[in-house]
């Protein structure tokens, strides 16, 4: 099987979030199953690595989109082929910008014709998130079967339809398939045109068919679900990258007892007292529910030290900076990979009070490193955090979070029970193998026309 994976970023070549991590691990897992995998993403100017240019051609003017050459670069890593497709719009510093809808329309409408002109053919296309939505639409028009995965329905790729529809390259009769409240919507394009839809956890697959989580697209998703064309496949975890027994950023350990050195080192690093440590490594946005933790800090700090690593909304950052004057609260702005590893390895519990969470990887990493998750019952957190390992709460409010943390704190006082939870969590299998087999079966069903 010849598979084409399409996404806006892929680790280690480009990354802003979890999508890039998925695009690093899933292709490798599929290749181990015998799938011939090609991954294509934009040729960002700030791309890590040096692709070898293998194709260059001209691309005509279309509306406001500027003319100029398109080019394709290649890096082969193991059994996976990475192609980087560049247009002039991407030849500037940084990654995402305000004109991304315009840029990804041009990218999306020209990508497949360019690959075809190079003589490349594929059995199935697998597009990821809104930036690949238009690629999926053009795949349908070209007769290529496709899967489309929603990683986060909140980000949709919208622009004024009067101006933007011409960018898509779609025939006028297809307007309704991408129109959304007077805008074009590239996420909707993927949802409508793909042969099968997936999300990154089974619970999230159902949640997005409801008004609460559907972001206005629940009607489209309900139709696909009723037709048996929507499913959830839980993301896996890169077990080589996240291995507490071989992690160079921590004191390596194999057992719950062996991680105690990391707890003490983290306590010393931040000057914490002997209360248990609650950590969070997160984007500071409403989705992640960190405002709930901030509101709960007066009660939480009676029982816990709290260490937060992340950045995002200015009000949340300011609140955490203010709280960092407290003897039991520490806030580190930005993203710091080695520190993140130390927090997973040295915290007693890991806080994810998300309002919604399509999948989440932090809770998986935390359990693998022996830190017990305290999570809200939503999306992938439900599917990945067993109640005999972590602690879950329902309502998205600070009182429910406080009650859950009090439950966890009471169990800290029972070391044998806490160690049992840790052992269970560290033994969970979050490898990509099971997820990759589910995707492979889905690709095969589409390739056979089922």
TrEMBL record:
Keywords for the protein's UniProt record, in alphabetical order: Glycogen biosynthesis, Glycosyltransferase, Transferase
Is Nucleotide-binding one of the keywords? no
| Biological-process GO terms, alphabetical | glycogen biosynthetic process
For the protein in the UniProt heading, the enzyme class is transferase
Against Gene3D superfamilies, the record matches this protein to:
Glycogen Phosphorylase B
Which InterPro entries does the record match to this protein?
Glyco_trans_1, GS/SS, Starch_synth_cat_dom
- EC id: 2.4.1.21
Q: In which pathway does it act?
A: Glycan biosynthesis; glycogen biosynthesis
Q: Which PANTHER family match?
A: ALPHA AMYLASE DOMAIN-CONTAINING PROTEIN (PTHR45825:SF11), GRANULE-BOUND STARCH SYNTHASE 1, CHLOROPLASTIC/AMYLOPLASTIC (PTHR45825)
Q: What is this protein called?
A: Glycogen synthase
Gene symbol of the encoding locus: glgA
